[in-house]
Amino acid sequence: MSNLFIVKAFASEPFKGNPAAVCILDELLPDNNLQRIATELNQPITSFVAPRSDGVYELRHFGPTNRVEICGHGTVAASHVIYEHLGHSEPEIIFSLGALVVRVAITAEGFELEMPKFISKPVPEIPCVSRFLGLPAKLVYKSFYDVIAEFPNEQMVRSLKPDFSVPLVNSIRALLITAPGRVSDYCYRVFAPSVGVNEDYFCGSANAALGPFWSYKLGRDDLLGYSVSERGGPVPCFVNGSAVTISGRALTWFSGSIKVEACA
């Protein structure tokens, strides 16, 4: 039976969306072992899934160089594998990420991922961010995990050419660049060199911060975000209470097996 899958999340055709490796385990290995596997696979994210006897799935995400606490496209990819390849028949999948619980609903349109809502607050200009981007943002905000840099329009977001030789401070897991969208409520790009991903192809978890950010600005809870990165696309986003819900499809690109015992 296959225990390794390469999945395109937020995609309905092969050369779109964001790739993730999904590895099925009987039980989670120590983090350093999981990191070694993720580094070897060298995907934007590797998501490790271990089914529990109570129906909950343990889930851990690792980039090529570091563990990532929450990952939207990795969670969608893991949900796809559980539903398509592990025979999950319930309408909901519950993941435990240690202290965090994430729920995914299975719908006709794909997977609806419920994430915690991250509130952002304005902060003074961060010098390394301006140097990294090559110009100052209109405003800068700090959310729980990430920094948001707001720009006046979508064209500026699309045309940014960051200097990846400029190090971002350690407190920045990812830098979220955003502006009002041309055909959406907001657009965005995500840079995460601290976890080994210079630019995320199509980041889902960014909307846990961007959804509430734009919901407050626009006075609406039902939004359409748009990733304008290389493999980006639309992301329906709903802000409700303490949660943010996004939805997306996924497809299997590859399946095979690795000898997990050799990695222990």
Keywords:
264 residues, alpha+beta, Diaminopimelate Epimerase, Chain A, domain 1, 2 domains, 18-stranded mixed beta sheet
Quick overview:
The chain has 264 residues and is an alpha+beta fold. The chain is 19% helix and 37% strand. The longest helix is centred in the N-terminal third of the chain and has 14 residues, at 72-85.
Tell me the domain tally: 2
CATH class of the largest domain: Alpha Beta
Helix fraction, binned, reads: 10-25%
Can you tell me the CATH superfamily of the largest domain?
A: Diaminopimelate Epimerase, Chain A, domain 1
Total number of β-strand segments?
Answer: 18
First-residue to last-residue Cα separation = 19 Å
Taking pLDDT < 50 over at least 5 consecutive residues as the criterion, the unreliable ranges are: none
Biggest pleated sheet: 18 strands, mixed
Fraction in beta strands? 35-45%
User: Overall 3D geometry?
Assistant: globular
Structural class: alpha+beta
SSE series: EEHEEEHEEEEHEEHEEEHEEEE
The CATH architecture classification of the largest domain is Roll
Note the total helix count. 5
Quote the average pLDDT.
Answer: 93
Radius of gyration: 18 Å
Q: Briefly note the CATH topology name of the largest domain.
A: Diaminopimelate Epimerase, Chain A, domain 1
Explain what you see.
The protein has 264 residues and is an alpha+beta fold. Helix content is 19%, strand content 37%. It has five helices and 18 strands. A hairpin with a 2-residue loop joins β16 (234-240) and β17 (243-248). The mean pLDDT is 93.
